[in-house]
Amino acid sequence: MSKSHETIELTTAQAIVRWLVNQYIEIDGTEQRLFGGGFGIFGHGNVPCLGEALYQYRDALPLYRGQNEQSMGMAAAAYAKYHLRQRMMFCTASAGPGTSNLLTASALAHANRLPVLMLCGDTFLTRLPDPVLQQLENFDDPTSGVNDAFKPVTRYWDRICHPAQVIQSLPAAIATMLDPADCGPAFIAMPQDVQGWTYEYPVEFFTKKIHRIRRIGPDVDEVADAAALLKSAKRPMIIAGGGVQYSRAVAELTGFAEQFNIPVVETIAGRANMIATHALNTGPLGVTGSNSANAIAEKADVIVAVGTRLQDFTTGSWTAFSKDAQFISINAGRHDAGKHRSLPVVCDAKLGLQALSDAVGDYTSPADWTALASSERTTWDKYVALNVSHGNRPNSYAQAIGVVNELCDPEDRVVAAAGGLPAEVTANWRTLKTGTVDVEFGFSCMGYEIAGGWGARIAQSEKQPNHDTIIFTGDGSYMMMNSDLYSSVLSNKKLIILVLDNGGFAVINKLQNGTGNESFNNLLADCPTIEKPFAVDFEAHAKAMGANAETVDTPAELGEAFKRAKAATKTTVLVMKVDAFEGWTTEGHTWWEVGTPQVTDSEKVRAAHQEWESSRERQRRGV
């Protein structure tokens, strides 16, 4: 029998794991396993069969035991983000609640266009033992269950109803997750009986496969149209999004800006595309942005948007730009490239920037325009310097950010997510090295901070074990999901976690007050169902999970504690109270559309509604 006709009898679960371990990716000429391993919590829906298969390859595919399936998925997303979507992790969960816990993490990965492979248990295909433990019965559709809920929040979804299906399903899932335009999570439902069923698989299915991420070149006509528009610009601007990093096009973006002397502003996902001191770095854009970037944005006549989906926090709900501004969008995704009447250049960012650079030729942005951008950035830098300074003022997020920024290593990775910290980090952090900031604001998911930090640290330890992952989290996010602090200790993946305690969900209280409403149910002190608000001893809690921990009273003390955390060999939690009302970054914000009551008995709410709506006339109309 020829080799191409050889077969091997394996269970479905064994075939899946054997195939995964033989997937490789070429990165900068070096072959690496596509999967760095996985995150898993076993239950009856995955331990007998998939657990048996994973045990055989426990060295090649290390399995990190999470504490919660949702946080596992977030850690996997952060791992993929660190590796710029070139490497990824799988997550395995049991049936029922174990799987449904992954829904939020899947939505996060989907919103952020990050590859995560989910291998989850399902009910029995035969239905002979129905209804089984943790099964949700759909009375008029017995094929539907918890796993079907993942269809809206995944880029690829399949249920394995026969062992032979994996021959088609697995390559399709990987192709989706590695596609620059379609990238996102993939979900494979694995009925408990089918996991153990056997099939004579072709041996060649398991031969080593080397993947390369596709770079799509731009259309000649699209480049010509974009070049003609850019050459007509008197006030051009570049928006640098997260796609710049995923395309590994940071150098090309910088070179493009320098060649044509064009100011660059960054999105939240695109934070750290340029170092803070670069002459053309005009600052972060939008609702959580800078006065400098927003001042330039509202005057720009041609805007080159590179690798951004133009989220509302970037666009100020489409009030950040002149209504007459024209967009050129370089994006691998057709859906993103055509937003708001943009001239689309649908392609890889690196190749698109190179092609547009050649087509534009000897154009140069007017010197007075670039000088204005530089002047605005200088003024903004002075504001940030004052904002992060500390002395006779209440403790603030910005002060803590400034302390860490001053003392960290340029290669350290910073992680933040929901609440007030994404805005504060975006506005006040001065990038020391490109690609070192992970502010998860695609889904703005509370709980990502520590879980994502753990995943990022696992990835970082593969490439830069001597540098740190630094997490900024508020007390609200910490309370929502902190269990991977324990995971980091168990797996010896050191984190430095700053818990900045403002007594509740202070940024939403700030929004609540800003829309004319009374403080209600956000700060612990304003929750009518809480009889005696008290402070959590975060230091004691962290120590109980095996971490080092310190509580400090001032930013100066925080600096000394941070030095000790840097010198430590295991996870350290630093706790400091910050003021819930004062100390917010008050500059750099654009308008942001939120729903406010059109009818109310409150004069304050009515006035806030009218003030909010007064900015709507600046809102750009588009599709």
Describe it for me?
It is built from 24 helices and 23 strands. It has 623 residues and is an alpha/beta fold. It has 3 domains: 8-211, Rossmann fold; 220-379, TPP-binding domain (Rossmann fold); 389-577, Rossmann fold (3-Layer(aba) Sandwich). Helix 10 (250-260) runs parallel beside helix 14 (349-360). The longest helix has 22 residues, at 367-388. The mean pLDDT is 96.
Largest sheet: 6 strands, parallel
Give the full name of the CATH homologous superfamily of the largest domain: Thiamin diphosphate (ThDP)-binding fold, Pyr/PP domains
Distance N terminus to C terminus?
Answer: 59 Å
Arithmetic mean of pLDDT: 96
Radius of gyration: 25 Å
Structural topology:
Layout: E1 7-11, H1 12-21, E2 23-27, E3 30-33, E4 35-40, H2 47-56, E5 63-65, H3 69-82, E6 88-93, H4 97-100, H5 103-111, E7 117-122, E8 156-159, H6 166-177, E9 186-191, H7 192-196, E10 198-202, E11 209-211, H8 220-231, E12 236-240, H9 242-246, H10 250-260, E13 264-266, E14 281-284, H11 291-297, E15 302-306, H12 312-315, E16 326-331, H13 334-337, E17 343-346, H14 349-360, H15 367-388, H16 397-407, E18 413-416, H17 421-428, E19 437-439, H18 448-463, E20 469-474, H19 475-480, H20 484-490, E21 496-501, H21 506-514, H22 538-544, E22 548-552, H23 555-567, E23 572-577, H24 603-613
Parallel strand pairs: 2-11, 4-5, 4-6, 6-7, 7-9, 8-9, 12-13, 12-15, 13-14, 15-16, 16-17, 18-19, 18-20, 20-21, 21-23, 22-23
Antiparallel strand pairs: 1-10, 2-3
Descriptive tags:
623 residues, Rossmann fold, 3 domains
